[in-house]
Design goal:
679 residues, alpha+beta, 5-stranded mixed β-sheet, two-stranded antiparallel ribbon
């Protein structure tokens, strides 16, 4: 039987992929790659791009075409059999990548190329590829003695395994909890959109009434709108204690031992490479020069934001007391009373805006915005094999019809699908001779699905999420870089990678952009002027409280990786308390186990890098400020962003690319203004 993962097709044959295909395909490609690498390093001829780097990029591309669909399916269509197959491959892939990173012959070949006259003849993207490779060899321990090399490899393998286990524990804990009720009064205040999902959940489970799950749209609806305080508390507790030692599932799928071991191994890995802590290792390829620089940046923002956040919180407490006589505002009350305060102050609830944002219409509007900005065209194709009925597939073409990229969308929450929203690469851009491979992306969200024949109506916050992830997608797909290792998001400094995503969110607030797609799903009318004005007026509602929350996550992550001491053991929750003492205005209850579900840093690549969201927000706010100065659909400005940022990918230093676009160093002032912290 032909293995679909090994078949050379333009796009993955998702409907043909079975768990039993996974490990044989991975083993075959790894064996082929190892043989090819041995042949490359045995070549006595001086290394050139064509003899050394190009073949390696082809090998990496073949591996990506096998593993990317598997990894994606494991995230969006998880099953016991697929999980088992996926996990069986994690140590194989880890061992291979460590071998590659520690291959002395390859390292020497790259050094020889870097020091030769041939290097000077390379294009900028090719030179950057060589420079990055040398840096990555060193960060992978290529120069370590043999015993230390083996220990590094063992650590890398174990970290890959632990990261996967963290995510699985979180998914299992999320899927395992539910609350069923047949009492409509218990659900008073919850919007009909969310109630429809709960009814659908109950029907699918074969029970009467409504089923509350821990899918994010449901959790948010309960915490923001349920009048039943005990219900809010129960959902809050279940959600914030997932995969921990507390709450209704106490001790099941507990991620605490996983986190403790991850921190120990990361610290040991850093020490093996001569770094004092893991944060220094993590920052080596990033824009920021040091942990001290990042902490100073975060502390500065905290100093500006916390006094405003304290005022916002005091107003909220006073409002809850006035409205319901509440003496103490608990964590499960904050969302509910915040929404009531927003309604009182602006006569506006996020639910009020849903009718203007049917998901399909928003998607079409998103396309209209980027088409105007960047001169591209997006078309749906219905002849592509997918993994679920909700999935759609699209092509991006230039005005002259040239294919630039393709992408899948999978927008709605369901069981066995990882929570959150993300963009992932299916394949990257790469030129080999005259042949050009165009990039393909996965765009995944977890919105409220269509219910009972009605369109999926999403919140304005979810509109922002969609624009955000598509910004990542454009960064990946609109690249014109031909060297795969620095094309699209590849090779981009991690603390700059959020620039295009956060940048694109701004168009969700502009009247000229909203008029392209924000139409009432029944009447087709645009958002009324009064409603739009109230929406804009509420943009910075509790902005400081939101900022200090993000700063809490960022400082916690960074200090966790700066201060970890293997001899003393983990201080996860003690450290979190210290950070909260510094920046937080809302103190969660003792049972809260937020770190146990903090997948960004324990399973998602953001370790000692969560600050990137705020770091890149400075860049994105400043970049958008140029559009506000020159016109939000100014084609010249749009072309400049396309050429300097999106098309260049990781081929040049991120700071240089920003300067090329903005004509100067980045300024923090636009972010402060956008957040309501400066006039």
């Amino acid at each position: 039987m032909t293995n679909p993962l090994l078949t050379d097709t333009d796009l993955p044959r998702f409907s043909d992929i079975r768990p039993e295909h996974v490990q044989p395909a991975v083993e075959q490609v790894l064996a082929d790659n190892r043989a090819a690498i041995e042949a490359i390093t045995a070549d006595p001829a001086p290394p050139t791009w064509e003899r050394l780097v190009a073949p390696l990029e082809r090998l990496e591309d073949r591996l990506e075409k096998v593993w990317s669909p598997v990894s994606h399916l494991n995230a969006v269509m998880n099953s016991d059999a697929l999980r088992e197959a996926y996990n069986a491959c994690i140590p194989l892939l880890s061992a291979y990548h460590t071998e590659m990173g520690q291959n002395t012959a390859l390292y020497d070949a790259f050094r020889q190329l870097r020091d030769s006259a041939a290097y000077d003849q390379l294009r900028q993207d090719q030179r950057q590829t060589v420079d990055n490779a040398l840096r990555d060899f060193e960060l992978a321990g290529v120069a370590l003695p043999s015993e230390a090399k083996q220990r590094y490899a063992d650590i890398a393998a174990r970290l890959a395994e632990l990261s996967s286990r963290f995510q699985e524990n979180l998914l299992d804990a999320t899927n395992a909890w539910h609350y069923d009720t047949t009492d409509a009064d218990e659900l008073a205040g919850i919007p009909e959109t969310a109630l429809g999902v709960m009814r659908q959940n109950a029907e699918q489970a074969g029970v009467e009434g409504w089923r509350i799950s821990l899918d994010m749209p449901v959790v948010q609806a309960v915490l923001a709108h349920a009048r039943n305080r005990e219900l809010r508390r129960a959902v809050y507790e279940a959600f914030t204690t997932r995969a921990s030692d507390t709450g209704p599932q106490a001790g099941q799928w507990d991620n605490h031992p996983v986190m403790a071991e991850i921190l120990d191994l990361r610290q040991e890995q850093a020490e093996l490479l001569g770094y004092s802590h893991y944060a220094a290792l993590s920052l080596a390829p990033k824009m920021a020069d040091s942990a001290e620089e990042v902490i100073a940046f975060l502390d500065d923002l905290a100093g500006r934001a916390k006094p405003v956040a304290e005022k916002e919180h005091a107003e909220l407490v006073a409002f809850a007391n006035e409205l319901d006589g509440l003496e103490t505002l608990q964590a499960w009350d904050v969302g509910y009373y915040s929404e009531r305060l927003r309604e009182s102050r602006y006569n506006l609830s996020p639910e009020d805006l849903r009718p203007w944002f049917p998901a399909d219409q928003v998607m079409a509007g998103l396309f209209a915005v980027v088409e105007r900005l960047f001169g591209i065209r997006i078309h749906e194709r219905d002849d592509v094999d997918t993994w679920h009925a909700d999935v759609r597939f699209y092509e991006i073409r230039d005005g002259d019809g040239t294919l630039r990229g393709q992408f899948y969308t999978d927008l709605y929450a369901r069981s066995q699908k990882r929570g959150g929203a993300w963009m992932a690469t299916a394949r990257g851009r790469m030129r080999q001779g005259d042949a050009l491979q165009t990039p393909v992306a996965f765009l995944t969200c977890n919105f409220t699905p269509p219910v009972a024949g009605k369109p999926a109506l999403i919140t304005h916050g979810e509109v922002e999420t969609l624009f955000h992830e598509f910004g990542h997608g454009l960064h990946h797909m609109l690249t014109r870089v031909d060297a795969a290792s620095v094309a699209g998001i590849n090779g981009v400094a991690w603390d700059a990678v959020e620039l295009p995503s956060q940048f694109l969110e701004n168009w969700c607030w502009e009247r000229e952009a909203l008029d392209l797609f924000a139409r009432h799903h029944e009447t087709g009318e645009p958002i009324p002027d009064d409603l739009y004005k109230r929406m804009v007026a509420s943009r910075n509602f509790q902005a400081a409280m939101q900022m200090v929350r993000q700063l809490e996550f960022s400082l916690f992550d960074l200090r966790l990786h700066v201060e970890h001491d293997r001899a003393r053991g983990e201080r996860i929750f003690a450290l979190l308390d210290e950070v909260r003492d510094q920046v937080a205005v809302v103190r969660p209850p003792a049972f809260n186990r937020f770190p146990n579900s903090f997948a960004h840093i324990f399973a998602g690549g953001y370790a000692a890098g969560y600050y990137s969201y705020k770091w890149a927000e400075v860049l994105s706010a400043d970049a958008f400020a140029r559009f506000t100065e020159e016109g939000i659909f100014n084609p010249v400005t749009g072309r400049a962003f396309l050429e300097h940022i999106l098309e260049k990918g990781g081929s040049e230093d991120a700071a240089k690319l920003f300067r090329d676009f903005r004509g100067r160093e980045p300024s923090i002032e636009p972010l402060l203004r956008a957040s309501g912290l400066a006039a």
